[in-house]
Write a structure and sequence with these properties.
This protein is an alpha+beta fold. Among the domains are: about 140-200 and about 215-225 and about 430-505, no CATH class; about 230-425, Alpha-Beta Complex (Isoleucyl-tRNA Synthetase, domain 2), CATH 3.90.740.10; about 590-650, no CATH class; about 660-810, Isoleucyl-tRNA Synthetase, Domain 1, CATH 1.10.730; about 825-890, Ubiquitin-like (UB roll) (Roll). The protein is built from 27 helices and 39 strands. Strands 10, 11, 12, 13, 14, 15 and 18 form a 7-stranded mixed sheet that branches. Strands 27, 28, 29, 30, 31 and 32 form a 6-stranded antiparallel sheet that branches. Helix 1 crosses helix 25 (about 795-805), helix 20 packs across helix 21 (about 695-715) and helix 22 (about 735-755) packs antiparallel against helix 23 (about 760-775). The protein binds ligand ANZ. One of its GO terms (cellular component) is cytosol. Its EC number is 6.1.1.4. It is an enzyme of class 6 (ligase). It catalyses: tRNA(Leu) + L-leucine + ATP = L-leucyl-tRNA(Leu) + AMP + diphosphate.
Length: about 900
């Protein structure tokens, strides 16, 4: 028995919206109206189809889009596909199916699944990053980057993944293996395209301040950019007789104040000067050490927990501050790619140096002391600020003793600049963006190399798009040469101006490229003359709300900001930032799973009696059965077996994954409960930004709520299965109480949507429904307003109810109910009751309550009545809505 006929109404309204293009945002719009651009992070159309995590964000943006339409905004709510990338290509290698075919198939599946959920996208604006019409402009942007010197080639050590046959960006390497697939990654120098994102570091940092983004995301971007201020300074290398050699080592430090505390130098193993300063005695050890560390990733090298290693080079340098000779070491906790690849080590004040110096018996020299009290530098490095000590030398004339460390830092910099030993310096952790992939399924890079000179020149804009050639064999060449080298007739070309023979670039762009600017194309998706029309861009920019996963905090969101700023400089966009407000939805974890334990005889044992040392076996059989709480129940804080409450279980929610078998497929949910239930449930699970666990009984609950709404307005199914008339009173005027109830609901729903607290908005609608069930009649005006309130959440049901209420067209552009504050005022008050001027109790009364009624209520109240028993009342003083004072005869 179906609670309501969602099987019929959902496809019906989806068809209606499609046929009537209800959600189309026309090209020519009334720009005097306010705009609202609400965007989802467009998906990668994987072979697996949608999972229930997708609709979480998509429902939220859909609710906002539907709300704003009803509030009179022009709304832009588009959807598209981030469809270049590795999986389609890997699939092609395995099966021989062209990535284009796989991509189209996957996109069709995704689109169909999204349509099943009733999202109000303007499908006329659909784009895919893999369409030549689209990537024409990705390539065009690359040409602008090239023109501005922001794209360049370099021989750089890259993360080479032999198994994938490609180079990966640092961000795609996690713990030394590829993020996708977990294959080992090694360092290897190769010619690469780089984008100079570092040139935008300061702007990317400064403009973060004004963004309405999660603070955590902004902080991650700040750390990623990693701006630090300090100094670069030189140390002279000295020979065994203490004579200056003609070699200087430049170090970068953020703590120039600690110069007197530098008791050794460290070079990164890849430092260019290493081979020239290493002594003959030490050469073999140093070479071996270099070899060893070349096999580690930067991440492994800098991990704080890892034991630090290093080798003495046999050489010394002179500390310019005090003239002392200090040893030079090589150690891989210093990275070749940061600062100058060399440091002055201050073991008393830096914990990494501290650990290293202890291990290798290198002296300490404390030079900063906490303002109040002393510090034992041997136990721990003191990295805080304080007062300078041990920091004066007649040789150099530098004396910073007694200064606060902050001031000392400036003094040292001044001194360095005066003596020519160094200068102030700002550094960034941010590296230029490695922008080439040795893969097939990506945007071709629009440059050619002339055969005779090898010169690299861009192709002309008129030649765009440079389309990907068809290719039958996708297997990586294994040498790092991209698969496109196999497209011989495509590679061989001539330059368009002089007809000189040339070869095309065979690297392609990384997957991040297409997603860097797609939000702009949605504003004007079919423009063949420009990336986006200027007027349209001006009207729609910036994206008002951008919703997606927190995993995109640095990469996508930083790259997109970078490109946007370049496009701002080029004059294509009018705003400095692309996304005004970013919201991260939480993760949906799988249904709670229960684990039971058995001893070696196979008997169930309580989880609290199992410790790690014992060899009890875990039983996961319980998981499936128990999720419906058939054999498990809650007891206090714990879960126990229903038939034996002494047996405790472990309850945990896990990320949904194929291997765990806890993936919930949205199609199945739609089939069983309908799209409206799925939408409503995902919004009701908990605060939008939090992680939450899937629960089948939870979706039952919201489904029952929707059925109650249906019965309230349409009526109940009678025995013959037909629905009988509902409780609508077409002519009835609403009572004040009904209006109060409605406006409380309007108020809550509106406020909570604005704060993206969808779950509490739904609670408010549930409260309204509960109240309405107690009424004899539901006046039409109240019912209609409620249907409109519900419509952003459960649009199919709302449209159907709206039409059954006698409307002939969609409610999508009806105005959203507005709250009348008059109905929000509380109608009752808490009235203090005094006896002879002393408060003895309170009663709850209508504001308009008369003296007589108040007195009656008060004398029924046990706290008050005991003072009245057997007494004569002399006088009553009553201030309506304020107080009742009863004066007794003495
Ligand atoms: C001396 C010193 C004394 C330092 C002290 C710190 C504390 P951030 O903030 O990350 O920029 N450093 C410099 N280059 C490095 C490299 N290539 N690899 C590893 N470490 C490097 O940190 C800059 C600090 O990290 C520098 O300041 C340097 O150590 C180290 F009490 O110099 B410091």
């Amino acid at each position: 028995r179906r609670a309501y006929p969602f099987h019929e109404i959902e496809p019906k309204w989806q068809r209606y919206w499609e046929e009537n293009k209800t959600f189309r945002t026309p090209d020519e719009i009334d720009t005097s109206k306010p705009k609202f651009y609400v965007l989802d992070m467009f998906p990668y159309p994987s072979g697996a189809g949608l999972h229930v995590g997708h609709p979480l964000g998509y429902t939220a943006t859909d609710i906002l889009a539907r709300l704003r339409r009803m509030q009179g905004f022009n709304v832009l709510h588009p959807m598209g596909w981030d469809a270049f990338g590795l999986p389609a290509e890997q699939y092609a290698i395995q099966t021989g199916t062209h990535p284009k075919i796989t991509t189209i198939k996957n996109i069709d599946r995704f689109r169909a699944q999204l349509k099943l959920l009733g999202f109000s996208y303007d499908w006329d604006r659909e784009i895919s990053t893999t369409e030549p019409d689209y990537y024409k402009w990705t390539q065009w942007i690359f040409l602008q980057l090239l023109k501005r010197g922001l794209a360049y080639q370099a021989e750089v050590p890259v993360n080479w993944c032999p198994a994938l046959g490609t180079v990966l960006a640092n961000e795609e390497v996690v713990d030394g293996v590829s993020e996708r697939g977990g294959h080992p990654v090694i360092r290897k120098p190769m010619r690469q395209w780089m984008l100079k994102i570092t040139e935008y570091a300061d702007r990317l940092l400064e403009d973060l301040d004004d963004l309405d983004w999660p603070e955590s995301v902004k902080e991650m971007q700040r750390n990623w950019i990693g701006r630090s201020e300090g100094a670069e300074l030189q140390f002279n290398v000295v020979d065994t007789d203490g004579l200056e050699r003609d070699i200087k080592i430049t170090v970068y430090t953020t703590r120039p104040d600690t110069l007197f505390g530098a008791t050794y130098l460290v070079l990164a193993p890849e430092h260019v000067l290493l081979s020239s300063i290493v002594s003959d005695v030490q050469r073999k050890d140093v070479e071996e050490y270099k070899e060893l560390s070349s096999r580690k990733s930067d991440l492994e090298r800098t991990e704080l927990q890892k034991e630090k290693t290093g080798v003495f080079t046999g050489s010394y340098a002179r500390n310019p501050a005090n003239g002392l000779e200090i040893p030079i070491w090589v150690a891989d906790y210093v990275l070749g790619s940061y600062g100058t690849g060399a440091i002055m080590a201050v073991p008393a004040h830096d914990s990494r140096d501290h650990e290293f110096a202890l291990k290798y018996n290198i002296p300490f020299r404390g030079v900063v002391t906490p303002e109040n009290g002393s510090f034992s530098y041997f136990e721990k490095a003191y990295s805080g600020e304080g007062i300078m000590i041990n920091s004066s030398s007649p040789t150099s004339g530098l004396d910073i003793n007694g200064l606060p460390s902050k001031d000392a830092a400036s003094r040292v910099i001044e001194w360095l600049e005066k003596t020519g030993n160094g200068m102030k310096k700002v550094n960034y952790k941010l590296r230029d963006w490695l922008f080439a992939r040795q893969r097939y399924w990506g945007e071709p890079i629009p440059v050619i190399f002339l055969d005779d000179t090898g010169e690299c020149i861009p192709i002309s804009e008129a030649e765009l798009p440079l389309t990907l050639p068809e290719l039958a064999d996708f297997t990586p060449t294994g040498t790092g040469e991209p698969p496109l080298t196999k497209a011989l007739s495509w590679v061989k070309t001539v330059d368009s101006t002089l007809g000189r023979s040339a070869q095309r670039e065979t690297n392609t762009m990384p997957q991040w490229a297409g997603s860097c600017w797609y939000y702009l194309r949605f504003m004007d998706p079919r423009n063949s003359k420009a990336l986006v029309d200027k007027e349209k861009e001006k009207y729609w920019s910036p994206v008002d709300v951008y919703v997606g996963g927190a995993e995109h905090a640095v990469l996508h969101l930083l790259y997109a900001r970078f490109w946007h700023k370049v496009l701002y400089d080029v004059g294509v966009v009018s705003t400095k930032e692309p996304f005004k407000c970013v919201i991260n939805q939480g993760i949906i974890l799988g249904e709670v799973q229960y684990t039971a334990f058995r001893d070696s005889d196979g008997n169930l044992v309580s989880a609290d009696s199992v410790d790690e040392m014992s060899n009890f076996s875990q039983e996961s059989v319980l998981e499936e059965k128990a999720c419906h709480l058939e054999i498990v129940m809650k007891s206090g804080e714990y879960f126990v077996m229903k038939d034996n409450s002494d047996i405790r279980l472990i309850a945990r929610a896990h990320k949904m994954s194929k291997s765990r078998g806890n993936v919930v497929n949205p199609d199945d949910v739609v089939l069983q409960y309908g799209a409206d239930s799925l939408r409503l449930y995902e919004m009701f699970m908990g605060p939008f930004r939090d992680s939450k666990t899937w629960s089948t009984s939870g979706i039952d609950g919201v489904h029952r709520f929707l059925a109650r709404v249906w019965r309230l307005i349409v009526g109940s199914p009678s025995l013959d299965g037909k629905f009988k008339d509902g409780t609508i009173d077409l002519d009835g005027e609403p009572t004040v109480e009904q209006l109060r109830c409605l406006h409380r609901c309007i108020n809550k729903v509106t406020e909570e949507i604005e704060g993206t607290r969808f779950n509490t908005a739904i609670s408010a609608m549930m409260e309204f429904t509960n109240a309405a069930y107690k009424w004899d009649k539901l006046p039409r005006s109240v019912a209609e307003a409620f249907v409109l309130l519900l419509s952003p959440y459960a649009p199919h049901m709302a449209e159907e109810l709206w039409s059954r209420l006698g409307h002939s067209s969609s409610l999508a552009y009806e105005s959203f109910p507005k709250v009348n504050p008059d109905y929000l005022k509380e109608s009752t008050v808490v009235l203090p009751v005094q006896i002879n001027g002393k408060t003895r109790g309170t009663i709850q009364v209508e504001k308009t309550c008369t003296e007589e009624d108040a007195f009656k209520l008060a004398s029924l109240d046990s706290k008050v009545s005991k003072y009245l028993d057997g007494k004569t009342i002399k006088k009553r003083i009553f201030v309506p809505g304020k107080i009742l004072n009863i004066i007794l005869d003495a």
